[in-house]
């Protein structure tokens, strides 16, 4: 990654030095099973060591083929089945089985309630649903029963508690079809930080190579041990983590969900070498009282992304864990990662950029209106073109055309800038941009300044309506715990707020400095760990947000 490029404009021609594997998910699994049949491929990362289930690559392929035969006894290739369950080995077996059978998997967030579930199942026209009976005391069976009449394409439902009966229904006489690398493999619904989520149609070639390239760029070695607590219904879980580990013939340790203490124990007990965590998860691991007493010497690599990764967090992580760090940037519509930092990048590039484009990906920073390439170090829309763009949004031609243009460029809606070496800085989202008195303000720039304050653990900057300016800048903050810099008493005193204002004012223009301050303990998050900015804004405007607001007038309670 140290090669000097010297670009003339914000355009990166695809790097063809690493080939795209023209293969399917099934091909990848068969290759690993042939090359390292007895190596452990999958571990059920539950708390009790004694009953953790383990699959070698040989056993995983055999189980996946049996699942594929069972699926084909009920569904035809090309049909869609949903999996509505938290992380579990059966989820992975379904992913591999569906891939071998040519059946399209539709991952569904197990936290969804009736209307959210109906939207995904109805718009994707699923023929079958595989579901857990319970999730966080929510009776999924009852919810599914309540909406079934609204789902005209749904024929079959299978509870995962009946998994063995389902697998036993397989008939080996049903031949597995020939699957092409360009065939659809999943419909992944966008996280829905605003509006209704859309179903991005991902393909075999895309999810295999985007995940493989991410593992290679990060430095995840052959046979490494990947500890995963990311939700499998997100492309970071079922793609980057699961398929990235598979591409390097590694061991994938699947935790039911994230818990900082259990994650630290799992790294120690399973000899974890790598993990992908969003910043909120990483902070929880660093701050957990169990961390100093755990032997985490096996940990060589931490990957992070999904939301802003502040420079202070990068430095703290590498110092505390003694590991390498890799920042990922991408989106569901691109089968996962498109730019990434690597282990050989300088500390400054690690802390301040999201790296260079991955191999075989063409990228430009474009004027959001004209699509023209912008000069270097100029903020514009990040657009990508290459093998890993989605096939489109399922049954949504208008939405597809607005995002994936006829010339092949996918418009991400993310704002960024590129330097002469091809390194990209993310500056925000088009829809998050704040317009104050005609000036465009990008929240991420302000967030990075506040992240450097020792009293702040996490921050989200949003725009609030204002009669005079149109919008004003508001900062929503979670304070650091027990570092001695945060105010001693809650709520934060006016003097502390004045200090934050001065901190920003010494680093930012006056119009970018927040005029309104909120302090909270917990964020409204998507399942992938992103702050739901529109929810935060609605809570504040509706007076239902727990916290405090301070302007240049005395601090006043909200709600």
From TrEMBL:
Q: Which UniProt keywords apply?
A: Ligase
For this protein, the record's Gene3D superfamilies field holds:
3.30.300.30, 3.40.50.980, Luciferase, Domain 3
Q: Which residues form the AMP-binding enzyme C-terminal domain?
A: 445-530
Q: For the AMP-dependent synthetase/ligase domain, which residue ranges apply?
A: 29-394
Q: What is its EC number?
A: 6.2.1.41
What GO terms describe the biological role, i.e. biological process, of this protein?
Answer: fatty acid metabolic process
* Enzyme class label: ligase
Task: Give one GO term, molecular function aspect.
Answer: medium-chain fatty acid-CoA ligase activity
Q: Which domain of life is it from?
A: Bacteria
Per the similarity annotation, which family is this? Belongs to the ATP-dependent AMP-binding enzyme family.
PANTHER family referenced in this protein's UniProt entry, alphabetically: ACYL-COA SYNTHETASE (PTHR43201), MEDIUM-CHAIN ACYL-COA LIGASE ACSF2, MITOCHONDRIAL (PTHR43201:SF5)
- According to UniProt, the name of this protein is 3-[(3aS,4S,7aS)-7a-methyl-1, 5-dioxo-octahydro-1H-inden-4-yl]propanoyl:CoA ligase
């Amino acid at each position: 990654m140290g090669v000097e490029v010297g670009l003339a404009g914000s355009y990166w021609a695809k790097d063809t030095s690493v080939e795209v594997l023209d293969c399917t998910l099934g091909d990848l699994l068969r290759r690993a099973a042939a090359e390292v049949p007895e190596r452990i491929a999958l571990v059920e990362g539950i708390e009790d060591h004694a009953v953790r289930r383990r699959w070698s690559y040989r056993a995983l392929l055999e189980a996946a083929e049996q699942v594929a035969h069972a699926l084909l006894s009920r569904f035809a290739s090309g049909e869609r089945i949903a999996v509505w369950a938290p992380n579990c080995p059966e989820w992975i077996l379904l992913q591999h089985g569906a891939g071998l059978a040519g059946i399209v998997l539709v991952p569904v967030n197990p936290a969804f309630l009736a209307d959210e579930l109906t939207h995904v199942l109805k718009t994707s026209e699923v023929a079958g649903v595989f579901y857990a009976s319970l999730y966080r005391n929510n009776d999924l069976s009852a919810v599914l029963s309540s909406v079934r009449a609204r789902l005209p394409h749904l024929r079959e439902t299978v509870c995962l508690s009946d998994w063995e009966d389902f697998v036993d229904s397989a008939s080996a006489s049903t031949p597995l079809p020939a699957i092409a690398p360009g065939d659809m493999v999943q419909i992944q619904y966008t996280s829905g930080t605003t509006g209704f989520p859309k179903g991005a149609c991902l393909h075999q070639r895309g999810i295999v190579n985007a995940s493989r390239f991410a593992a290679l760029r990060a430095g995840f070695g052959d046979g490494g041990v990947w500890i995963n607590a990311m939700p499998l219904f997100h492309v970071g879980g079922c793609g980057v983590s699961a398929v990235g580990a598979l591409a390097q013939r590694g061991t994938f340790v699947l935790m039911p969900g994230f818990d900082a203490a259990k994650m630290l124990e799992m790294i120690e007990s399973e000899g974890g070498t790598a993990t992908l965590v969003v910043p909120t998860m990483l902070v929880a691991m660093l701050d957990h009282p169990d961390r100093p007493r755990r032997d985490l010497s096996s940990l060589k690599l931490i990957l992070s992304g999904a939301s802003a990764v502040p420079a202070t967090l990068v430095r703290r992580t590498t110092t505390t864990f003694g590991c390498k760090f890799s920042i990922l940037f991408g989106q569901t519509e691109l089968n996962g990662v498109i730019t990434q930092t690597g282990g050989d990048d300088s500390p400054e590039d690690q802390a301040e950029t999201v790296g260079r484009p991955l191999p075989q990906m063409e990228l430009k920073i474009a004027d959001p209106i004209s699509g023209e390439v912008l000069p270097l170090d100029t903020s514009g829309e990040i657009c990508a073109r290459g093998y890993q763009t989605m096939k489109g949004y399922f049954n949504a031609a208008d939405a597809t055309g607005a995002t994936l243009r006829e010339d092949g460029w996918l418009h991400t809606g993310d704002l960024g800038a590129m330097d002469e070496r091809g390194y990209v800085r993310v500056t925000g989202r088009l829809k998050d941009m704040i317009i104050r008195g005609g000036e465009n303000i990008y929240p991420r720039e302000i967030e990075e300044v506040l992240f450097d304050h020792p009293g702040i653990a996490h921050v989200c900057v949003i725009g609030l309506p204002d009669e005079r300016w149109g919008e004003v800048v508001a900062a929503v903050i979670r304070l650091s715990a027990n570092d001695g810099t945060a105010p001693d008493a809650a709520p934060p005193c006016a003097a502390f707020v004045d200090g934050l204002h001065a901190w920003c004012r010494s680093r930012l223009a006056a119009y970018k400095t927040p005029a309104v301050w909120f302090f909270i303990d917990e964020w409204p998050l998507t399942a992938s760990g992103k702050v739901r900015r529109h929810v935060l804004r609605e809570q504040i405007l509706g007076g239902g947000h727990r916290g405090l607001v301070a302007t240049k007038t005395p601090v006043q309670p909200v709600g």
